[in-house]
Automatic annotation (TrEMBL):
Source organism (scientific name): Amanita thiersii Skay4041
GO biological process: one example: protein transport
Keywords from the named record: Coiled coil, Endosome, Membrane, Protein transport, Transport
Cited InterPro entries: Snf7_fam
Stated name of the protein: Charged multivesicular body protein 6
Any Pfam family: Snf7
Amino acid sequence: MGTKPSVPKITAQDRAILDLKLQRDKLKQYQKKIQIILDREHAIAREHMAAGQKDRAVIALRRRKYQQSMLVKTDTQLENLEQLVSTIEFSLVEVSVFHGLKQGNEVLKQIHKEMNPETVEKLLEETQEAREYQTEISAMLANTLTTDEEEAVQEELEQIQAEVIQEEKGQEVQLPSVPTVQPVISEREPEVTESNHGKVPVLVE
């Protein structure tokens, strides 16, 4: 009987490399899909600013910044894990790698939840349920964003405000100015023409 070919053993390092690749592929898919959500949140912020609802515009922009930061941080974390996996002494960092993979899966689940278009539209709605959701999001994000992220939100808010003001100025109807000088009507002397009955004054136009 012939000997069976040996099956290569899958090591913990191989499994970690595969898991990381799957997570990064999924993250890239989410990045493309969530861009639609980010664009919509920006548009909602503009609508609120145009309506004079600055506080609600801030909520939309904070949620947008939170999602953007989540994507960037997760991508950076996975990139760092890839570097750890590629180290020669993988056994020394194995626990850290698998802990990072577990965290990565949890964050990906959270990102997936953020991709729900219905929750985005609640930022614009006026229903009681929508108001409660807006309050909940505002409270949650108040202690989540970093100082730099909050500054970025305020800068984007100012930019949107300037754009809205510029658009409103462009839409103003330019009425003609009222003349301040009365028009002068020239009076012409009637010319005298001759006829068979004598000279008759005739007004020539």
